Amino acid sequence: MKKILNILLFLFLLSCETVPVSERKQLILLPDSYINKQSAQAYKQFLSKANVVSKGNPQNKELQTIAKNIEEAIHQYFVLENKEDPTKKINWEINLVKEEQVNAWAMPGGKITFYTKILEVAENENGIATIMAHEMAHVIGRHGNERMSQALLLDVATSVAQTATGTTLQGGSKTAYNLLRAYGIFLPFGRKQEAESDYLGLVFMTIAGYDPDETVKLWERMAAHAKKKGGAPPEFMSTHPSSESRIENFKKWIPEVKARYSPYQHNYFFKEN
How many C-beta neighbours within 10 Å does residue 118 have? Predict the structure, then answer.
């Protein structure tokens, strides 16, 4: 049993990679090519059933323009930092879907969806840029791959433990396992990824020339919307930090990000690729 655990630990350490910008260590077990292919297939299936807004729609055109600006800012960040550019392997696709949910989400490989309702809360291009940069940061941070890798490692470890002990998870034990899976393992990582995307998104939108102060205003509007609808779930029970936590984080990050990354605005339009 100890030998098997040592092997799992070795695989864990061997599979640790680094998130761009934040420099956080993360677990990546699966090839991006595999994840992106699965993601593209799933996204195509989703779009076939969704009420997708036409590309000629003014709201959709604005989304595409903002996405292109932030995509270029991300690319130029890596050029100016003399780092390998992950955007070269990303096929960005942004879609607007008519849906009465205040939501936007991203899938590995650059597949991003905005629901029309969230544009009401975003209110303006800076609000949209805040959300867009956050979702793009999920892709740059490889968070989808990381979550799948975490699940894979947990499943492998569970199977090994069952084989070594000759037992299976049933009844109360399985319930405890599911609770551990949800609250002891995945939610802390989920909140870290969300906070990381908030920070990376703040950096990218600032480089693109959008107003970083709008991030605070956006999440104040998000909090007001949630309150109007009966309130958001407690932070501990959600993969997303509360609006209040996000607001405090942005207030803390904005001065540093402005000082460090606003000068990039003067360079990234002119830097040779």
Answer: 19
For residue 66, give every residue at least 6 positions away whose Cβ sits within 8 Å of its Cβ, in sequence order, or none. 125, 128, 129, 132
Residue ranges in 50-142 assigned as alpha helix (H)? 58-80, 116-122, 125-140
Residue 42 is encoded by which pair of tokens? 């799933």
Residue type, 273: N
The per-residue pLDDT for range 211-256, each reduced to its tens digit, is 999 999 999 998 888 888 776 665 544 666 788 889 999 999 999 9
Share the mean pLDDT of the chain. 80
Positive or negative CA dihedral for 161, 165, 167, 172? negative
Q: Tell me the whole-structure pTM to 2 decimals.
A: 0.79
Cα 70 from Cα 74, distance rounded (Å): 6
Rounded Cα gap, residues 96 and 236, in angstroms:
30
Alpha-carbon radius of gyration of the chain? 20
Q: Taking phi first (over 0 means left), then psi (-120 to 50 degrees means alpha), and beta for anything else, what does residue 230 get?
A: left
Q: For residue 227, give the nearest of 210, 244, 248 by alpha carbon.
A: 244
- Calculate ∠ Cα 197-201-204, nearest 5°: 145
Cα 66 from Cα 152, distance rounded (Å)? 35
pLDDT band per the 50, 70, 90 thresholds, residue 163: low
How is residue 52 annotated by DSSP? B
Mean pLDDT of 2-18: 53
Q: Could you give the CA distance from residue 115 to residue 101 in angstroms, rounded to a whole number?
A: 6
- Residue pair 203/77 in contact (Cβ under 8 Å)? The answer is yes
